[in-house]
Every structure is written in C-alpha cells, then in structure tokens.
Amino acid sequence: MAKSVAKKASNLFVWIILGLLFIALAGFGIGSFSGGGSQIGQVGEVEITAEDYARALDQEIRAQIAQTGQPVTLADLRAQGIDQAVLQGLVAQAALANEARGMGLSVGDAEVARQITQIAAFQGVNGSFDRDAYDFTLRQNNLTPAEFEADIREDTARGLLQVAVIGGLTPDTTIAEALVAYQGETRDFSLVTLTEADLPTGLPAATDADLQGYYEANPQRFTRPEARRITYAWVTPSMLMDDMEIDEDALQALYDQRADQYLQPERRLLERLVFIDTDTAQAAFDAIAAGETDFDTLVADRGLTLEDVDLGEVARADLSPAAAEAVFSDTDSEIIGPVDSTLGPALFRVNAVLDASEVSFEDAREELRAELAAEAARRTIDDLRDPADDLLASGATLEDLSADTEMMLGAITYTPASEDGIAAYDAFRDAAMVAEIGDFPELLELSDGGLFALRLDEVVPPALPPLAEIRAEVVQAWRASALRDQLAARGEALVGQLATGAALADLGRVETERQVRRQDFIPDAPPTLVAQVFQLAAPGDVVLVPGADSALIARLDAINPAARDDPTTQILIQIIGQSLGQSMAQDIFEAYGQAMQGAVGIRLDQAMINAVHAQFP
Question: How far apart are CA 97 and CA 91, in angstroms?
C-alpha cells in the first residue's frame, strides 16, 4: 500500500510561490538525509535541507513520468536544467520563510489543526478526521506529526506574506475588454470567385517568345541544384531475407517462447482502490451500493487520480488467490469487494472483460519466419563486414566488391532532395554530402543493420538546362503565372465596375460567409482572405484577393461586435482578466523575491547538492 499512499500524499498541498512552486511529500526515502540534519544551503536564517531538495527532485521526476508516460531520471532533468529550477524554487521558498520570520508572521495551533483536518487524505469514509490515517500517511513519508505541522505553519506564513504583497492587485478591466472585443468581433461578407472560365477570351497558348521571355526572366526557378554522381555498393537485411533458410524447429521454439503473446488467458481491465482495513473498505462498498457515492468520487476524496489506481490488463495469475477468485468468478458486477489484495483490503472496478485468445503456430508462422530471417540476414551481413573491409583495404573497387560479395552495385545522381532507394538512409545522405573525388571507399553502416560504401565520381555544379530540355516545365510555370496575372486584372476591372454602380450579383455567383472570426479559415480560399477582410474599414468596402488558380472579390457586409451580454463573452473577460492579474502578480512577486534574496544573501553547498544527486539512480 505504500506506493499508493505515497502518491496520494504528494498531492496533499500545492503552494503558489513565484507562480509555480510546490513542496512534495512523496518520500524519496534517502536514508542518509533522513530528518533533515544535512543542509544544501541557507537563505538568511532559514535552512534548505538535503531531504527537502531530494523530495522536490523526486516529485519533479514523478511529475515528468506522469506527464510523458516515459521513464525519467535525474540525468534527464539535469540535461534540461530542471534541477536548477527546482533548487531556485526552494531558495525562493526559504527567502519567503525568512522574510515571514523577520516580520513575525505566524499562525496558531488552531489554524494548523483546521487545515490538517480539512485534508481529504486524512479523512475517513464519513468525512471526519481519521487520526490513524494521518499517522499512517506521515510514517509512509518519513515525517513526524511535529515536522508536518511545522511545514503547515511555515507554508501558511508564506501564504500570508504572498497575500500581503499581491493580494490587492486588480488589473484594469479595460485591457481585458479590449482584447475580448478584438477577439470576439465577427464579420459577414460576400464573395464572387473568378476562375479561368471567367476570362472573356480564355487563357491563350504560350508562344515561343512568351516561353523564352519567362525562361530568361526566371532562371532561378529552373536552375538545377548541385548534384553528385555517386557509385555505391550496398546490402540490407531485406535484400537477403528471402534467401535465408530457417529451421522449422527454430520457428517452433520462438513460438513457444512467445506463448504469453500468442496464447492469452482471460483478462480484466481493472482499477484497485486500497483501504486501511476491511471495515473501511466495506463501508465504502456499501456507500456505492446505496448510491451515496461512486468509485470515481472515492478515488478523488483520497487525493488520488484514476491513473493512480489503474492496474491495466490483469490475468488471474497477476492477483492474489482471494482477489483472483473474487474478480474472475464474477462476470456481472462492476464493483467487487472488499477483497484481500497484495496491498491490503481493496475494492476492484472491472472496466472490461477480455476473452482468452489463441493464435496458432500456422497463423503466426510468417511473422515468426520474417523475424528469424531478418536476424539471420543481419548475422550474414555482420559476417560480411570483415571480408568486405579487407577487399577495400587491398584496393578493390566497388565493382569488385559487388562481384565478390552479396553487396549490390548502384548509381545515383544525388541532391539534397533525393529520397528514394539508398538516399532514404540518413547515413548515406550524410556520407554523400562530405565525400570528395578520389576518396577511398569506406564501409559504413545503415540504420537497419545494412552496409554500404560509396564513391563520388563527379560533382555537377548548379546549371540552368536549355529551354528545349525543360520546355514542358516552363510551359506549366508560365501558364500558372499568366493565369494569376489575368485573373487579377479581370478582378480589378470588375471591382472598378462596382465603384461605378454595378451590383456584386452582376459580376457572378455570390456566396456569403457569416459570423466569421479572425482565426477562421475558409476552405478552398486563399489563406489571406479572412485577414484581408478584417482589414476593411466599413460595410460596403471591397477587396480583391488573388489566389493560385482563382481570384476572389470580397465585399464586407457587416461588422459584428462581440456580444457584451453573452455569457460566453463575460466568461472570456473574466478568464483574460484573471490571466492578466496572475501575470502581474507573478512579475511583482518575482521581483519582491529577488529583492529579498539579494538583501539577506544566499549560501549553497555544492558538495552537499552533489551528494543528493548521487543518491538518485
């Protein structure tokens, strides 16, 4: 039960200091620092203990694991500089505590008792303070009641100081209202879309003079980048797999080894909530049965999350005999218990029943053969490495290498845009870019276990091909450019007609867009359409928006201010106001904290900090 309680205890309290600072009660259990006798530093008269630092680092590791779902070590935190942020947080807390002491800020025993009795983890099923749960949780975190109560007293004093510094800050609502008005404004507009079909004379075919002029005016568009003509020899496991002879007994042995994968017993998706004793677990079960609470509420009341109690897929053999019998013999109930689990009396919630499954040897045969064939191919390539190296060292060419080994010869005109065949491998791409003419081929590895060697035969400098060689490409580019230009010219002419009294409907089929926000995107329209519409000053204003193969005439029909009486708008004003207030408070409090630290001085013991780091795996 220690793991669940420790996780729960780490969620007991979060004190907002310099925006996001907290102390965890996760109990890292570093024996050499137990009791806080060693210190890593001091701010004024307040010590920062090694145990506090170890706890804070452990809590950050746990938080990172919960967030990413991946293993996290102290080395990972240090690589990102997170250990320094944790240390700075403790320094800031110590500075606040020192200031609070100097000002005589403190709270009485009654307030400490009130706060402790309100912590859900210390309450029984009936909601009242449970002394046994209190003592048990503190023991699991290597804390005495005196130490924990001192922490509560000090945290509360720091909170009083924080409130005194920033409690009266109220941002001007004008800023929030202006931001909401800007963000909440919508616009109505009408559109006429012009395409090639709307050109009165259509798009004429390009003449030789048109193509020659476009080709000469846009050489950068058609210039080929530097290319490298490379000869290579290579071999990969996939080239050899089909020729690998795989023994039938080896296939059967691998199938037997994977029996737990191919022969799955009946399983359950389970959540487990552990209690201190059977009576407490039974009371919780009865409360669920009576409809007075539910499993999720019980989890939350204990200061846990559903992730904390999730067991995932569980087979009968994964549970204690009593729990396995209770869970797997009941196919109807969602909540099962109380049952004795390996951690104590518990309630189980069954989220799904997974039937037993079996994949036969014949069904798995191809998958097994592919795996063994790939391994055999990699071994063959490993055996090839030394002979191939010896051949190259003796002066053999890539052609000789291909003739005398399983390696295949190939050639490529390589550019950074190449991505087919061997150019899909980063190792080849890197080697191709640094190769020099005259270099001796070197045997290199590919990411899938393959080998290759290359020879740079020629560097082809950037060049503009003759028009005759790329005529089709130039025709396509000229046509796209001419279409854009002519659609834009046609659009400008039609906009001019609007200025002389023509109606938008006279120009073509009109489509309307209503209640469009600044961040909205209109499908199949130029990406700048909405932004350009929001630049229009008044209803009736018109803008021409060119696109790749169309042009749009947009007329602003209405500007719709954000609805002040809309509950959503009011909520948004409150959210932005709170965000601004928090930002202001954080900036001011950071400045206050830095001033305090500068006034009293900070002393850190790097040797003791390193000793804490050394205790982590």
Answer: 10
Strands 263-264, 357-358: pairing kind: antiparallel
Q: Is the pLDDT of residue 114 over 50?
A: yes
**What phi and psi, each to the nearest 5 degrees, are found at residue 18?**
55, 40
Consecutive H or E run containing 460? strand 451-460
* Three-state DSSP class for residue 21: coil
pLDDT band with cut points at 50, 70 and 90 for residue 487: very high
Q: For residues 423 and 462, what is the distance between their CA atoms, to the nearest angstrom?
A: 20
Global pTM exceeds 0.70: no
Q: What's the CA gap between 423 and 417, in Å, rounded?
A: 9
Q: What angle do CA 492, 496, 498 make, to 5 degrees?
A: 120
User: What angle, 0 to 180 degrees and rounded to 10, lies between the N-to-C axes of helices 173-184 and 567-600?
Assistant: 130
The CA–CA distances, whole Å, from 198 to 65, 135, 137, 193, 550 equal: 60, 83, 78, 9, 10
- As to burial, measured by CB atoms within 10 angstroms (0-12 exposed, 13-18 middle, 19+ buried), residue 217 is exposed
Please answer whether residues 552 and 193 qualify as being in contact, where contact means their C-beta atoms are separated by less than 8 angstroms: yes
Please state, rounded to an integer, the average pLDDT across all residues of the chain. 86
Q: How far apart are CA 610 and CA 589, in angstroms?
A: 30
Residue 358: band (very low, low, confident or very high) from pLDDT cuts 50, 70, 90: confident
Helix ranges, 412-542 (H): 426-434, 471-499, 529-533
Pairing of strands 39-43, 357-358: unpaired
Tokens found for residue 38:
């060693």
Beta strands at 551-560 and 227-235: parallel, antiparallel or unpaired: unpaired
Q: How many residues does the chain have?
A: 617
CA distances from 395 to 229, 230, 411, 441 (A): 21, 18, 20, 9
Structure confidence at residue 18 as a pLDDT band (50, 70, 90): very low
Q: Name the H helices within 69-144.
A: 74-79, 82-103, 109-117, 131-140
Q: Is 221 within 8 Å of 477 (Cβ atoms)?
A: yes
Please determine, looking at this structure, whether the domain spanning 2-168+597-614 carries the CATH number 1.20.140.10: no
Q: For residue range 166-175, list pLDDT tens digits in order.
A: 766 777 778 8
Helix, strand or coil, per DSSP, at residue 156: helix
Q: pLDDT digits over 361-395, tens only?
A: 888 888 898 889 989 999 999 999 999 999 999 99
584-613: average pLDDT? 83
**Quick one: pLDDT at residue 459?**
96
What residue spans define the domains of the chain?
A: 2-168+597-614, 186-221+471-560, 230-240+374-459, 266-355
Residue 218 scores a pLDDT above 90 = yes
User: What fold characterizes domain 266-355?
Assistant: Chitinase A; domain 3 (3.10.50)
Centre a 10 Å sphere on the Cβ of residue 559 and count the other Cβ atoms it contains: 15
